[in-house]
């Protein structure tokens, strides 16, 4: 059967390929779920079975955005504990999170995914680590929501086995035993992980953090991931308090602790990595360990400024993350493109920290690297999956910015005229085509109120 083709033309294009190739006016041809060709000027003539032509005049075409760290369930606990540091914020919110059930997880995932997809995310991930006893099939609910929304998705199946009675932060009834966590994680991998080129769902092994997870869960989790051939994810070096915790409990800093448990490697990525010294960065570069940079959340919780320019210079793979929407209430990735550039210019490198094009690379190709999918997504190149976003830049908001990449990164959030995931339309004229946004909003409000009532009742 002949391939169905979509032609997008007359738009500026930032390919984010190895050479950062850009076209002031160019085209992309999509054949079924793949990018068939990309170039300057008009699309080739004589193309067969063209089912749609899109005039991209006044637009910028980029690879779809890739989110590398999130906690979907937090969508229904936004706007709480707004003046706390990380540890106090966790202590304040764990009693609420520990009461999340399957219906809440599904609604929260729908809200998180809808917000990201509408803002240009074509590949999302969720680090879900709260599995209260008797809460239902939380992983299945989250994966269902991602499938319904139509984005590519990695579920980082998290876990916690260090509750309050063992010196951890989460309530005891919100943690799993070591054996239960490992067994449930392996079952999730076996049931849902797809290793194929065009996979829509993948699974990573993801114990939560050094202060909520035993050393044995870290070590055995790494062994499980490598036995199953999946990636590993956790939080790392987020705050000064975490570093002190690791030194007091383990006699070493976070990076050395991670290395001692098998948690450095090209199949690993960690969220935040704010407090990294030169030796830590060198260890990540040497091992190919990736970083999910979450500038808005880091600022919201007062965690600090990650040394992203130094990481990039050393060769550390870096992508962008929204982080949970209880510490990033906007919940969309364009904010992270902008804040990655702005926040890092407050650090040691000042105005030379990051460029607009480096920020775009973090949110696209960098994220694909971190998720282990740079061969399939993250740049506009023939043979890659047709995950593309067409940004509208001819409105008042961007009318006097000549450089379209600068307009996208530093300007107001640009409307998404078209978002494709594997050639399938997910966003059209700034609205989702796959789900009813108003229905999702109603559902998330209902579940947020239900959770608040349950928490208040104790």
Task: Give an overview of the whole structure.
With 458 residues, the chain is of the alpha/beta class. The protein is built from 14 helices and 17 strands. It has helices spanning 86-97, 102-118, 138-149, 178-192, 215-228, 240-250, 254-260, 278-287, 295-300, 308-314, 334-344, 356-370, 404-410, 437-457; strands at 5-14, 22-31, 34-40, 50-55, 59-63, 65-66, 121-128, 152-159, 201-207, 231-236, 268-272, 290-293, 318-320, 388-392, 416-421, 424-428, 431-432. The strands form two sheets. Strands 1, 2, 3, 4, 5, 14, 15, 16 and 17 form a nine-stranded mixed sheet that branches. A hairpin with a 2-residue loop joins strand 16 (424-428) and strand 17. The termini are far apart. The mean pLDDT is 96.
Largest sheet: 9 strands, mixed
User: Fraction of residues in helices?
Assistant: 25-40%
Shape: globular
Report the portion of residues in β strands: 15-25%
Low-confidence stretches: none
**N-C termini distance:** 60 Å
Q: Give the number of DSSP strands.
A: 17
Mean pLDDT: 96
Q: Work out the helix count.
A: 14
Secondary structure category: alpha/beta
Radius of gyration: 21 Å
List the helices and strands and how they pair.
Blueprint: E1 5-14, E2 22-31, E3 34-40, E4 50-55, E5 59-63, E6 65-66, H1 86-97, H2 102-118, E7 121-128, H3 138-149, E8 152-159, H4 178-192, E9 201-207, H5 215-228, E10 231-236, H6 240-250, H7 254-260, E11 268-272, H8 278-287, E12 290-293, H9 295-300, H10 308-314, E13 318-320, H11 334-344, H12 356-370, E14 388-392, H13 404-410, E15 416-421, E16 424-428, E17 431-432, H14 437-457
